[in-house]
Amino acid sequence: MTSFDAIIIGAGHNGLVAAGFLAKAGKKILVLEASDRIGGAINLAHIVNRLSPAVVSGLAIDPNSLAGELLPTIVLDPDKGPVILRGGYGEILEGVTAAEAQGWAGMRKKLLMQAAVLKRFLAKRPPRPGDIAFSDMVDLGLTGLGLIRNGRDEARDFARMALMNVADIADEYLTDDRLKGLIAFDATLGIHLGPRSPTSLLGLYYRLTGEANGSPGGQFLPKGGMAAIASALEKAAVKYGAQIRLDAPVARILSERGRTTGVVLNSGEEILAPVIVSAIHPVTTLRKLAAPGEIDTHLSTSLKHVRTKGDAAKLTLTLDKIPAFTGVSAADLKGRLVIARSIAHVESAFNPAKYGAFSPDPVMEITLPSLLDPSLAPSGGATLSAIVQYAPYDLREGWATGKPKFLAAIMDVLERYAPGISASVTSSELLVPPDIEARYNMPGGHWHHGELQVDQMLLNRPTFAVSGYDTPLAGLYLASAGSHPGGGISGLPGMNAAKHVLSRRPA
Ligand SMILES: Cc1cc2nc3c(=O)[nH]c(=O)nc-3n(C[C@H](O)[C@H](O)[C@H](O)COP(=O)(O)OP(=O)(O)OC[C@H]3O[C@@H](n4cnc5c(N)ncnc54)[C@H](O)[C@@H]3O)c2cc1C
């Protein structure tokens, strides 16, 4: 029986990052992955907009190996023509009036400034009440200073705006429905909120804390596609000595008198380690894998109440020709295309989801990955990836009959924006949240492994009873998107958790 300093459960990108940082510190690390490939839900993603530079440099990954040109966002509108955002989240705007461009610039500047203030809290452990470290106080002080430095009005505006809904902010700065629709969509993607839901602006702040190529709010697709990120993280972890085993689902976490001792695989094999870093959903970790006697009733109940039902579906199409989206140039087809015509469009797509139904006119973002990597499609053809909101996890009629109807609704929308596209489809795959749950071992199929709403953030992530990567079981730590700061391809939960483990105990 081999033993390790630490076992990482899950080779999603956060598990690989945690493995890399721990192995770099000289620990003997084993990563156990249930499926037959690394990367987890990275394989669903199609845009990078928040991979942390601290993760890339901390693991000594050559940033050029992951670089890609900044991609524009094109907000589609077959009647008025598209709005195009270039640079980092619309540094340059095309397709709107000069007055609208000015309104956008003012709003963009303010939101990026506010997001930069919040960003300070992402790459570190969230503060714990009763356990506030000196560095937390310094951060809080610097946050206040950062705001005041920008002027008293900015501090006041931040206090006013932070918990508002994105629709009201859009109405304050913008008149163009296409731009309003875009920020309404971006603020709510992967979250069970509509643009008029209180606090929905937080989702947009979260997005704008991300960056690409040093550009806040930027986005790109790396050479080699999303898989290149997982592969770079794997190489980094292996370079530092970590071992990775695929097809090795963990069935149980072993513990003795409140301290972890190892894991048991589904096969019955036992592997020992004093430290377990669980980079899978926190609820699975604590309610399924940990011994029931180790988790008290209060914690078990609060975990049961973590909201984690996904809303995003993923459609992949193979097309026998490159689709023509009305008003979009061949060069811009390489960007992110967004179908969200207005705030009302996004809100009315959300409304049925509250009652277990989907809209006949869903909102979505689309990429054509084969235009950046032609090996992905047959010659002359294309692949299309769409992330479609809102696909309620608990569809009232059931997804067995609902899925073909939802696919038909999505294709109807696509046909309106890219006439002729339906006839060129040679294969399609639609994954709705229960499919994502099953294929990616993600309860609820949720983007963030748990709603990223104000009551499930910071010291309440995943829940107040377990946050800051610790658990009541000594030696067991949490490291997935379900921990602070949340989901998306950032690597931050994995990096923060690994640093916390290293600060805690000599493994
Ligand atoms: C439809 C959809 C589209 C998305 N698109 C984007 C996007 O374009 N850009 C973006 O930044 N983010 C996107 N996201 C979000 C992003 O994919 C996730 O937030 C992120 O991948 C989570 O990473 P993770 O490492 O924390 O967990 P995961 O990626 O879920 O990895 C967990 C790993 O653990 C494994 N595992 C689970 N249980 C066990 C077990 N018992 N034993 C061993 N292994 C186990 C799983 O198989 C998996 O490999 C999208 C999410 C969804 C649902």
TrEMBL record:
<comment type="subunit">
    <text>Interacts with COX5B; this interaction may contribute to localize PYROXD2 to the inner face of the inner mitochondrial membrane.</text>
</comment>
<protein>
    <recommendedName>
        <fullName>Pyridine nucleotide-disulfide oxidoreductase domain-containing protein 2</fullName>
    </recommendedName>
</protein>
<dbReference type="Pfam" id="PF13450">
    <property type="entry name" value="NAD_binding_8"/>
</dbReference>
<feature type="domain" description="Amine oxidase">
    <location>
        <begin position="198"/>
        <end position="295"/>
    </location>
</feature>
<dbReference type="InterPro" id="IPR002937">
    <property type="entry name" value="Amino_oxidase"/>
</dbReference>
<dbReference type="Pfam" id="PF01593">
    <property type="entry name" value="Amino_oxidase"/>
</dbReference>
<dbReference type="InterPro" id="IPR036188">
    <property type="entry name" value="FAD/NAD-bd_sf"/>
</dbReference>
<comment type="function">
    <text>Probable oxidoreductase that may play a role as regulator of mitochondrial function.</text>
</comment>
<dbReference type="GO" id="GO:0016491">
    <property type="term" value="F:oxidoreductase activity"/>
</dbReference>
